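Researcher: I'm comparing several assemblies side by side, and this is the next one on my list. It has 404 residues spread over two chains. Same procedure as the others: predict the full complex and return the structure.
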Amino acid sequence: MAAVGEAGDSAPGSSAPGHGGPRSAGTRRAILQAARAAFGAHGYDQTTIRAVAAAAGIDASMVMRYFGSKAGLFTAAVAGDLVIPDLRDVPAARRGEALTWSLVSRWEDTAHDDALIMLLRTAVNSEAVAVQLQAVLSRQVFEVVAALGAVNAGERAGYIQAQLLGLALCRYILRLEPLASLATADVVSAVAPSVQRYLDDA
Amino acid sequence: MAAVGEAGDSAPGSSAPGHGGPRSAGTRRAILQAARAAFGAHGYDQTTIRAVAAAAGIDASMVMRYFGSKAGLFTAAVAGDLVIPDLRDVPAARRGEALTWSLVSRWEDTAHDDALIMLLRTAVNSEAVAVQLQAVLSRQVFEVVAALGAVNAGERAGYIQAQLLGLALCRYILRLEPLASLATADVVSAVAPSVQRYLDDA
C-alpha cells in the first residue's frame, strides 16, 4: 500500500475507502471542503476527482484513498452533516417528533436545503450516488433506530426514510403546494406521528 | 384560432391547453402514444415537440394546442395513467389502504414503474415538469381527497403525496434496502395506516 503523502497518479478503484494507510482528519476536511465547492459550482457530472484534489492541494490518489470513488466523495461532501440525534436520550413517545424536527429544521436552512436538493437530484440520476446515499442513510437513520433495540430496525428505518425523504422531495424539491408553503411547525406536527408509528408499531 | 387539422408551423406558447378549437380524442391518443415512445427512447431533454408531432403524423402546432408545452406533453404522456380510485366507494376505515394499494400495485408493474421513474427523475431536474406534475397530482390526489368532504383537503393531499412519492422514491428509484425487497403486501400494510391518518386526523 502507498504511504500517506505519496504523489502517485490517480488510480480509481485501487483501494477501498477505509484501507490504504493512516489518514488525517485535516486532510479529510480539506478534501471535503474542496469537494463541496466544486460540486456546488459545477454539479456532479462536471466535477472531477483531479480538480478536487488540485483545489485541496493534494494528489488525486489521496482523494480515492479517503473516499473510494467520485460517488463516495460526493455523498460524503453533501450528506456529511445529515446528523441524526441519538433517540435514546428522548422520551419514547417524543422520538418521532425529535427525528422529524431534526431533519426538517435542517432542511429549512437554505444552505442545507441546497445540499439536500443536490444530493437527491444526483442520486435520482446516478445509481452510484444512490448506493452511496443508502450507505449514509443506513449509517445515520438505521443506526439511530437500531440503538433503540426495536425488532426489524432495518424495515423501520426504511419506512422512516421513505416518509421523510418524500417530505423533502415534495416540499423542498418539487415544491408542491400547499405543502411547500405550510409553517414548519405544522409540517412537523402532521408528519411526526407517522414517524412515531414506524418506530413503535409491531 | 386555427381549425383542427390546419398545418401551420410550430408556435410554442401560441395557445394554452384547453383553448384553440375543437379536439379529437383520437388525435390526443395518437400524440400521447408518439410522445411515450419518444420520451421513453430519448428522455425529456432530447425529445422535441416537432419529432413527436412527426411521429403522430400531425403538425407541431397541434401538439402545442393539445398540451401547451413540452413539459405538459411529457407529464400527460408519462403520468396519464396514475388514476386514483374514487374513495367514496370505499368504507372510511379502509381508504388509506385502498389508496396505497392502488398506487403501489401500479408501480410494481414494470411498465408503470418505468414511467414513474422517468416522471420523478425529470421532475426533480426540471421546474417546468415539476409544475406540471403538481397539476396532475392536484387533479388526481386532491380531487379524490376533496370529494370525501374533509376540511383542509389540500394539506391532506399534500401529506399523502409526500408519503407515497417518498415510498416510490426509496423503493423504486433509489432502491434502498431493505425497503426495495420487501413484499408488496408488507409495504402496503406498513404505509397504509399513515395514509389513513392523513385522511382522518384533524
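Model: For your comparison table: Residues 153-173 of chain A form the longest helix (21 residues).
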